[in-house]
Design brief:
Blueprint: H1 14-32, H2 37-50
Amino acid sequence: MSTNPPTVKKPLPYAEVRRIFREARQQQLQTQGPITAQAIQEIQQSRKYAR
């Protein structure tokens, strides 16, 4: 068990947080690939019957 006190980080500036989220979203979209029309229809159908 370490005796070091936890490090306290300063909050990131708003612009930095936006940049990090934008990069993460772009990375996710690149790895995820485009959604197909068929996938959209399946989601819409499942939502219709979930109500």
